[in-house]
Amino acid sequence: MTTDTASTPRRRLLPWASGIAVALALGAFFWPGAAADFGYDRPALLRGEWWRLATAHWVHLKLGSLLWNLAVLIPASLWAEQIAPRRLRLLLLLAPWGIGAALFFLDPQVQVYTGLSAVVIAVLGFLTLTQLRTHTPDPWFWRSVLALLVLKIIVEFAAGRPTFAQTALAHLPVTPLADLAGLLCATIAARRRKPELKGSGL
Known about the structure:
The chain has helices at residues 16-30, 34-38, 42-46, 52-55, 63-83, 85-106, 117-133, 139-159, 176-190, and strands at residues 40-41, 112-113. By secondary structure, it is mainly alpha-helical.
């Protein structure tokens, strides 16, 4: 006996991972001393405070930077969690570690770092690549999004300054490597994607 799952309406998943991600960013912003306790700080990392590799991404020093990142993260993450919940949740869990590790091992000149932009790149890149690999009816739109992400990273490497947003503090270094690592995480998460059942989850 066979079942016709294609004709059965799929129920919408509760996007709990996206909700946790937003809550972490908001909570860190209102946490007194969050940058000192959770921000990327190379000397602190060398002392063994390894959690900073992941927690730094949720720390924002300016409200404008937080709102800018959330304006992209929220719709992208909600959308991605509906179409590829397991992979999106793993991405949100592991990408901050991967991005932080890339900064630590590949760019030792970076002493301090905060902000969600690289994780936003990872989530938006994952959504874009997932749409392109599932034969979306709007491939040119998603190709344009992917091209803009790549162009953003290229411009930042060439110009040495961030695009679309300002650094939280003037003395913080520009780290396009973080955005590049985020896009690489997205590529890994989206590779050879198989259809996921909406009822399944991590």
